[in-house]
Design goal:
The protein is mainly α. Helices cover 81% and strands 0% of the residues. Helix 3 packs parallel to helix 9.
Length: 227
C-alpha cells in the first residue's frame, strides 16, 4: 500500500469510525418530534436516520466503487431501495421484530462483504467467482430495511395513521439516502479520473473491511453485554 493510500485510510478511519459506532441512535428528541408533528415529522426523522446511518452508507459506497456508469449506479441503488422498502414497510406493519444488535451485525457483515469483494477477495483468497452483484444488493437491501424497521419500531408510533406513518418514514429514508449519496457519488466518480484513484480505491475498500469487522464486533458485544 502506498503512503498516500495509508494516509487516506488512517484519516478516514479516525474521522468516520466513531460516527459509525453511533449510527441509528434513537433519541428522546426524535420521539418528541414524532409526538408533536404530523406525517412530515416522520419524513424528517426518516431522512435524519438515513443520513446518520453510516453502515447503510458505507455499504452503498462500496457498491458505487464497483460501478462505472451513472446508469448502473441508478439501477443498483434502485434495487437496494426496493429491497429495503419491502422489509421496512412490511416488517413494521406486521410487527415483525428481531434483536437490533443481531440485525445490525448482519448489516456490518454486508459492509465487510462489499469491501472484500471490491478488493477481489473471492478470487484471491477463496478461489471462486464473486456472486452476481445485483441480486446480492437486493438481498442486502432486504436486510438493511429490516434494520431500519427495528429502529422505527423502537419509537412510540401509535395506531392512528399507522401505515401512513410507516410510508412517510420510508419516504424520509429515501430522501435522506439521496441527500447522503450525492457527495459520495460525486467524490468517487470524480476521483476515478485521477492518477491517485487506484490507491484511494484500495485504501477505501480496505477501510470498509476494517469498518465491517469493527461494527460486527461492536454489535455482538452489544447483543451479549448490552442488556
Amino acid at each position: 500500500m502506498t503512503n498516500s493510500a495509508k494516509k487516506i485510510l488512517i484519516s478516514s478511519s479516525f474521522i468516520l469510525f466513531p460516527f459509525a459506532l453511533l449510527a441509528h441512535g434513537v433519541s428522546s428528541g426524535d420521539q418528541e418530534i414524532l409526538n408533536n408533528g404530523g406525517l412530515l415529522s416522520y419524513i424528517y426523522v426518516g431522512a435524519k436516520h438515513m443520513v446518520t446511518g453510516y453502515d447503510h452508507l458505507l455499504f452503498l459506497a462500496g457498491v458505487i466503487f464497483y460501478l462505472k456508469s451513472f446508469k448502473d449506479i441508478v439501477r443498483f441503488i434502485t434495487v437496494f431501495t426496493i429491497g429495503h422498502s419491502i422489509t421496512l414497510i412490511g416488517a413494521t406493519y406486521l410487527g415483525i421484530q428481531a434483536n437490533e444488535h443481531l440485525v445490525d451485525a448482519v448489516i456490518a457483515l454486508s459492509v465487510l462483504y462489499k469491501g472484500f469483494e471490491n478488493l477481489g477477495g473471492f478470487e484471491k483468497y477463496l478461489k471462486v467467482k464473486s456472486p452476481n452483484l445485483l441480486p446480492m444488493v437486493f438481498i442486502f437491501g432486504l436486510i438493511h430495511g429490516f434494520g431500519l424497521s427495528t429502529r422505527l419500531q423502537s419509537f412510540e408510533v401509535g395506531s392512528s395513521q399507522f401505515l401512513a406513518k410507516i410510508v412517510s418514514f420510508n419516504i424520509g429514508v429515501e430522501l435522506g439516502q439521496i441527500l447522503a449519496l450525492i457527495p459520495i457519488v460525486f467524490v468517487i466518480t470524480k476521483w476515478q479520473t485521477k492518477n491517485s484513484y487506484n490507491a484511494f480505491y484500495k485504501a477505501a475498500n480496505f477501510y470498509l473491511v476494517i469498518a465491517g469487522i469493527g461494527l460486527f464486533i461492536y454489535q455482538m458485544y452489544g447483543y451479549f453485554y448490552g442488556h
